[in-house]
Every structure is written in C-alpha cells, then in structure tokens.
Amino acid sequence: MQSRLDGTEAVVEFVDNGPGLKDPQKVFEHFYTTKPVGKGTGLGLSITSAIVRNHGGRIEAANRPQGGACFALRLPAREVPETAEPAWVPAPAPAAPAGAAAPVSAGPRRPARLTASVLVVDDEPSVLELQIAILETYGAQVIGARSGAEARDLLRERPFDLVVTDLRMPGEVSGQDLYRWARAERPGLASRFVFVTGDTMSESALAFLETTGRRCVQKPFSVEGYLDVLRDTLNEKRAAA
Predict the structure, then answer these.
(1) 89 and 53: one domain?
(2) What does the pLDDT look like over 161-205, one tens digit per residue?
(3) Helical residues (DSSP H) of 30-91, grouped into ranges
(4) What domain count does the chain have?
(5) Nearest to 179 by CA among 214, 228, 144
C-alpha cells in the first residue's frame, strides 16, 4: 500500500503480485464475480464503490505491467494547517507504459439525487447493504429491514415515501404479503411499492405484478436503472398528490 497527493486528491493504492484481474472493466459491476456459483455474491467491490462515491471520491482498478493488480482509492484532499504533520506523503505517480490500458474507474457518473425516505426490505444482507449504499449516495434517507415482518413493524411506526422490497422472501411475510398488508392497513402506501427480484418469475408472480401495477427491478441491475425506477415511482406518487 502507498499513499500520495495528486493535485487536490489524496490517493491510496493497494497492489499485489498475483495473477491480476481477469476483466478490470467489470470488477465494479453489481453481481459480477469470478468465484464458483454459490461462493460469491459479486457485491463486495460494488458496495465499496458506492461507499467511496458517497464520500465524494472514486476507486479505480487496473493490472500492473510488472504483474498483479492495483486498486487506487481517490478522495478529495483536506487542507492541513502548515503547523500540522502532513496527512499524506507526496510521491510521484507511476507512469503507465506505452500501450497499457487506462485504469478502470468506478465513478463518478451520478444520476440526479433522490430526495426521499425509503424503506428497503431484503433477506440477503449483501443485497440490502448494496441498495442502502446506493440510495444514501444519491441523497435518500434509508432504513433497511431483513424480513417482511420487520418491515411491517416499521411501517406501523412511520410513513415512507417509497418501499423497495424483495418480491419473494422466506418467513411468514413475503414481499407480496407485505404489499397486501399495506393495501389493507395503510392504503396510501400501496402506490409507493417497488419490487426487486432475482428469480425467473413464475406465472403467479407475473400475475401478481400485473394486478398491482407496481414496478419491478430485475437483478442484476445497474445503479442508473435502479434509481430510474424509484424516481419514476416517486414522481408518479407526487403527481397524484
């Protein structure tokens, strides 16, 4: 690991001498993994990227000419008083060899902010954490729930502008059950639901979505596509108010 100042940015680089990255262009994509099925979610680096962007920075990935991989974390540098010890040790940036591919950056292509309170419901902790990181990065106030029952209790306590829930979850309250409860007990919430699913939807699930008229985000999703669906739902709700 080495740190340096690069103009107005503080840069921390993490390098290794391993086999390198199979595809640096894809490492920050949601659900991308080189691990065997069942061994990796492909969310670690995408969550890291979202957290870094939330702090105004970006993270880049590249293979090193001498072998191995390099991840460069770039954050806005804070001004340090002259009497203080330097927080970063300036060092010359390594020059890229002729013909080498440029580092792949995870940001920042930023859609418009999403100013809303959002309840996110998903029984998979990594997927829940990813959605929370994305939404907080773009300005939303977010609370997460790991089950439909927990989400139902939260909805009894306070309103939300949007409810983003996994369509199918284990336990006594699935995403569909949560929607049905909202329609019966909190009718104003029904139009604020967005469903997320990674399954090939059955005929019954498709019929349910058609009956509700609610939008559904299919995994794997892009940040832009995910936010577009939520923003459309929010705008639709506000236009009807």
Answers:
(1) yes
(2) 999 999 989 899 999 999 999 999 998 899 999 999 876 567 888
(3) 44-54
(4) 2
(5) 214
